[in-house]
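Hey, sorry for the delay on this. The queue was backed up all week. Below are the sequences that define the complex (chains, strands and the ligand SMILES where applicable).
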Amino acid sequence: MVIGGASGIGWATAQLLSARGDTVIIADLDGIAAETQATELGGNTTGHRVEVTDEQAMRTLFDTVAADHGPIGTVVDCAGISRPGTIADLSLADWKATVDVCLTGAFLTVKNATHSMRDGGSIVLVASLNGRQPGVGMGAYCAAKAGVLMLTQVAAMELAPRGIRVNAVNPGFVHTPLTYGATLVPGLVDEYIENTPLGRAGTPEDVARTIAFLTSGDTGWMTGSAIDLNGGAHTMRYPNIVERVAEMVATNSDTE
Ligand SMILES: NC(=O)c1ccc[n+]([C@@H]2O[C@H](COP(=O)([O-])OP(=O)(O)OC[C@H]3O[C@@H](n4cnc5c(N)ncnc54)[C@H](O)[C@@H]3O)[C@@H](O)[C@H]2O)c1
């Protein structure tokens, strides 16, 4: 099951897991996109609408899938949003929305997975470079993703007796609909790339391949771990998004 599987990293993951022969369940807030992508994958793939922050909806999703297909082997949580803003200016609503989807969603994923998974299965949570590297204007997202990394470790300890492994991936900048807004800010993506030793942004497929690896027998002795996947960006500094946006606003008002 790939939650947040209708777009970006989740969709690339769904395609890869399907190509290796898994029966894939795509769950997403955008239920129409989930169903459309499921149809594209064909086979036994099904698409479902789910709000990852809604405990009852998540319970129903996992129950339905387990009833239809039996105990689930792999669960990947790719659902995420980001509401940037400095701590001084960020609204409580934006803080809560980000933490709810990114952290509470991960909690509800693990919680429900434990009831519907087979022993020996694998859970992957998509955290972020921002779970370990701070960025100005990224307070809610950074805090939520750091929480996901600790949740990964606690879940790994609690589920180890059943042989269920819980790991995370920490992608750096990847071109997806989530990051489209950043591409509209002059110089921002360039600054990401300058701070990436391998000199390029990631692709959804880069991340999907690592997720597939974490759900394979090749990582059967790995749990409670997080894989940094960012072209080396964690060794450098994170761009100042707020400064870049302020520059853009100043330039736009100069030209008006
Ligand atoms: N793109 C990046 O640069 C990047 C970097 C690091 C981490 N991430 C993380 O990777 C994950 C996937 O992001 P992406 O870049 O593929 O973005 P995306 O926007 O392409 O995909 C996110 C998916 O999550 C779904 N979603 C959002 N809110 C939801 C909710 N409340 N309930 C259920 N589904 C919901 C969306 O409908 C969408 O299909 C996220 O957790 C994101 O934080 C992305």
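The longest helix spans residues 92-116.

I'll add it to the shared folder too.

S.
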